[in-house]
Amino acid sequence: MLIGMTYDLKDDYLAAGYPLEAVAEFDSLITIDAIDDSLRLLGYETIRIGNIKALVAFLAQGNRCDLVFNIAEGLHGLCREAQIPALLDAYEIPYVFSDSHILAVTLHKGMTKAVVREQGVPTADYFVIHDEEEIERVDLPFPLFLKPVGGGTGMGISANSIVRDKIALSYVAKLLLAEFRQPVLVETYLDGREFTVGITGTREGARAIGVMEIVVDPSCDLGVYSYKTKQEYLDFAKYHLVGGEVALECEKVALSAWNALGCRDGGRIDVKMDSLGRVNFLEVNPLAGLNPVDSDLPILCRKAGISYHELITRIMDSALLRMGKARSRCIS
């Protein structure tokens, strides 16, 4: 089986002059090499294609592959994560991870919350600001938390994201609208413990592989899991596996959200407790980072005793099961 690999290489965009935060979600060669090595260890032939423009050229030249391992985040618009999957849909080429429709919905944090809330998954009250005129329409109790609706890797999140009055709300909302040129999500601030839940599988085959608590040093952005914190996590963040009733409740909320959204194969769900200790859905990452050293999902797996190769194997098994193919052969 020939597996194509699609991705956005961070160095290419930095060389083209893009600022570091704009390409924070993009991947390094370390990630590409690690995925490629695991796929080849499983016995697959691989071909590195690259970003969407490279994929367009690849397909236009008449090239095809049996399956695409897609981790491309895209660059422009709120459907950026869905662009490569949509193109592959048009060519009837199957791919790993969630489909184009799901990736379009889940990149918009407001739409994501609407879907999970409709399905009975607990999540904080929210409002989406589309322009400055809508700031006055926010009618939620302070404190509130603000972030771009389509950001990832902590983009647009800092100590200023927590606002405690209307003046701060207006200031931060206008700042985010201007800087990121997309709507702003306003949520009731949850001041409890924060967790991320790793998941592999699809629908009834989805399983939580671990629950990891994220503890941020309050000296960094007032303890917010921000862009700065994520970039400097070795200095400011600690990660701990949790068990017992807390883990079970986190898994319950995470799996309910995963299946309500229709996510596939592998990813992460972030959850957070409110002041009463109730677990709430925070957001989903259906294209979770796969850097073998720095990304949350591989970190969680290491702490749970799951190797990087086993993680890739489980993701591939889910994709192949959907395709009606034989499971991967792990020869680690």
Structure description:
45% of the residues are buried. This protein starts with a strand and ends in a 9-residue tail after the last helix. Strands 10-9-8-11-12 form a five-stranded antiparallel β-sheet, with helices on both faces. It has helices spanning 10-15, 29-41, 52-60, 83-90, 100-107, 109-118, 166-180, 227-231, 233-236, 244-261, 296-303, 308-323; strands at residues 2-6, 45-50, 67-70, 126-129, 144-148, 162-163, 184-188, 194-200, 207-216, 237-241, 266-273, 279-285. The mean pLDDT is 94. The protein has three domains: 2-97, 3-Layer(aba) Sandwich (Rossmann fold), CATH 3.40.50; 125-188, Dna Ligase, domain 1 (2-Layer Sandwich), CATH 3.30.1490.20; 194-323, D-amino Acid Aminotransferase, Chain A, domain 1 (2-Layer Sandwich). By secondary structure, it is of the alpha+beta class. α2 packs across α12 (308-323). It is globular and about 55 Å long.
**What is the level 1 CATH name of the largest domain?**
Alpha Beta
Shape: globular
* Content of β-strand: 15-25%
Determine the structural class based on helices, strands and strand pairing: alpha+beta
CATH architecture of the largest domain: 2-Layer Sandwich
Q: What does the average pLDDT come to?
A: 94
Rg (C-alpha, Å) = 19 Å
Largest sheet: 5 strands, antiparallel
Amino-to-carboxy terminus distance: 19 Å
Instruction: Give the CATH H-level superfamily of the largest domain.
Output: ATP-grasp fold, B domain
Strand arrangement within the widest β-sheet reads 10-9-8-11-12
Number of structural domains: 3
Count of helical segments?
A: 12
State the helicity in percent bands.
25-40%
Give the helices and strands as they follow along the chain. EHHEHEHHHEEEHEEEHHEHEEHH
Q: What is the β-strand count?
A: 12
